[in-house]
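Complex record, two chains
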Amino acid sequence: MNRRNFLKYVSIAGASLGLSGCAVKQFSFGPRQRKPNIIVIFADDLGYGDIGPYGHPTIATPNLDRMAEQGQKWTSFYAAAPVCSPSRSALMTGRYPIRLGTDESVFFEWSADGLPTEEVTIAQALKNAGYATGCVGKWHLGHLSRFLPTNRGFDEYYGIPYSNDMRVDPNMKVAKDVNFRESATLEKMRNPENRKGGWVPLMEGEEVVEYPCDQTTLTGRYTQRCVDFIKKNSDNPFFLYMAHSFPHVPLFASEEFSGKSRRGLYGDVVEELDASVGRILDTLHEQELENDTLVVFTSDNGPWLSKFEQGGSAGLLRGGKGQTYEGGMREPGIFYWPGRIAAGSVVMDIGTTMDLYKTFCSLACAKTPDGVQLDSFDLSPALFGSGSSPRKTFFYYRYREIYAVRHGEWKLHFITQGAYRQGEPKTVHNPPLLYHLGHDPSEKYNVAKDNPEVVEEIKQIAKEHSESFVPGESRYKKRFDWKDS
Amino acid sequence: MNRRNFLKYVSIAGASLGLSGCAVKQFSFGPRQRKPNIIVIFADDLGYGDIGPYGHPTIATPNLDRMAEQGQKWTSFYAAAPVCSPSRSALMTGRYPIRLGTDESVFFEWSADGLPTEEVTIAQALKNAGYATGCVGKWHLGHLSRFLPTNRGFDEYYGIPYSNDMRVDPNMKVAKDVNFRESATLEKMRNPENRKGGWVPLMEGEEVVEYPCDQTTLTGRYTQRCVDFIKKNSDNPFFLYMAHSFPHVPLFASEEFSGKSRRGLYGDVVEELDASVGRILDTLHEQELENDTLVVFTSDNGPWLSKFEQGGSAGLLRGGKGQTYEGGMREPGIFYWPGRIAAGSVVMDIGTTMDLYKTFCSLACAKTPDGVQLDSFDLSPALFGSGSSPRKTFFYYRYREIYAVRHGEWKLHFITQGAYRQGEPKTVHNPPLLYHLGHDPSEKYNVAKDNPEVVEEIKQIAKEHSESFVPGESRYKKRFDWKDS
């Protein structure tokens, strides 16, 4: 038995035989026998129920269907927050946003702060382990140079710095050939008419390269960038973070997809994302990289329900964006790695975007940062079929408080609130509400009275968690003084 | 080119070349080159969202997942009524229940009537075309001998004659070895304690063979009967109607499945149904019949929501059993026929259980009854990928009225009502409510004001339909006088 076959066998059996777990895991089944590539495809405001594998009846997603059929579908996979910046900060660091000070709001075009620069992003961790790193799409963790992807562990960046309904910051660096000052006057931006989409800048590295960004071609351009990145790095391990700008409103589809879906514009946009997923998977296949690459598909938070037909659907889950009901934070979670992940497998255990940090570090033999309290679990046992997810508990934070806690199948709500940007009436529940998410995934039946010992146990878990650390200072206080809304 | 290959080519191309459409279709791709077998697996009160392919997060249905992945998932497939007997009468006849007089209620143990005997059931039509016909499971179209399956086109019958929450009719024929009179006294049956499940009779042919029926082993026994039927008929075309008694309440799972699901007892029961589906598909594979057999999986109506955790979920659809919102009548609809139906295909067109009548007759070269107005469309173009579903319009009947009409993606509600057996407040809408089911599958946004011409068009369609026939006389008036509830 030569060394290559020996290692392959070890890897299949999952036994370490004296090798470190990490050393074993770096050997995948593809022809290159190297550290695996990692791709995260991250949608924006996509609901749990918005794609075929999660039951949407009128949005056609043949590529995501294929990804789930040939990969693994998680049915309890969570974003770490029900809104954008906190959710993304947790994905990047493997930590609850409350530790980072990014939990309270989202960054705006007038924000003068970002994800704390002392945090070690997953891109930095993987870069330190020899990975080429690329970020394509929406960032939303600070748009000043020191907060941008190229200063946070990514070799390259192409995308919009925050949400696609935001405007430009007149202080931003601008490429020489962009006629920026003319269209970005404060006067123009203060006109509400000019906020109806299309006033977000497109960046390359740390410079604005297009303003206003043409959003109709954005998904296609992101996809091309990603295809190029994969091809360019086909001979060395890479980490690609592909953060789509959609289906966050305002919605734009390309000419090819406009008017094609039964679901209207929202469906057109999601079907274009699906086609993009197909191009990524096809590129991996063409480059003979599919057996060397883990692809993860998920989203940053639930659907923006108050946008009516332009908002998505959380399927059978209650609530949406901004809420700590399941619909606000539970997301599609599809893991794809032919040869390593069992085709058509379904995982009902708990996983979160924070867990990607340790999972990726484990697969990549990357060092996790010293002296940092991670809120991350290595999901490998569940992904590769050797066991269950190590995560048993999840805290649903909103603003700076624990609104709810999931522990096993139980979920205890201390606070709930209404739909995002619809007044959001906040209700404190004393006694708290208890739901069994296994029996009652739609959070309809409060069973607190019948299970007082469960209520007490979860209250204690929340108390111990809160007392175990000091929240980070809010990162939403530093602002440029031109803010006008 | 020999005759066999010639016909295969014709069948693939879908061209008739002078042969009748029927003659072409009888040739399937399996080794036997004969008329295809047909199996309908019919669940009871299963919701649109209750299985993996339609997005349930805590019920594991690996066999239905496989059936959808290797077959075809319909996302707008309807039962013809939101409650049991009307729905089943439509499946059996390809006609709206209002034509049959079966629309107003459901049959009870004191009912002295049934599906009109002059109606030609799909079993009769297929039997006339040379099919062996078997019925296993819940019937619910009349429990007196002349209404039972063996007098309505089926060679054999094994199952319960109506819902599993009903009691015995003391007038029924009983097998010699069954101690029936002792346990079936009116006094015992009048005791509400004795209604808590388990007081339904099990029949073989036209005789009660077990009373009270042990429901814990019912799914397994049905499955074994079906496996035996398939094996017995492996050399001639057969039609098997497998109508499960669950997940209608009261719920019973076998020892093997009890307590196994994350969804509680409801999940246990559905997971046992899923395992049953697996056994059927495995049997077809073992018997080398899978390329010769069309298998259809669907349900009779939506989830019984007022049963709380013991009722199912319609997923993202509004409403449930007894209602004419989508959740009451739209069902999982999975079609499986390896070699004929494209694996992993998804159909978003409209189909109904009534359409199975013409579809099956077409596949089987069976004659449809003369002089009978069928409400059935041959779904073959959509099933086999040559075109779209011919059905464009669907009437949602409740009691003896049209409550709603779907026409294309539009749905107009004239009347809506509350959850089944929860008071069911009825609301007449004048002007009617208009929803776009493509854009708004959850029926949230009434867009009647913006689309007055659509409202008028659908009103006219409903009027013409209603004026085109005389409703059948109600079949729920003849009763035994021992009725006591």
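Note: The CA atoms of residues 414 and 443 of chain A lie 14 Å apart.
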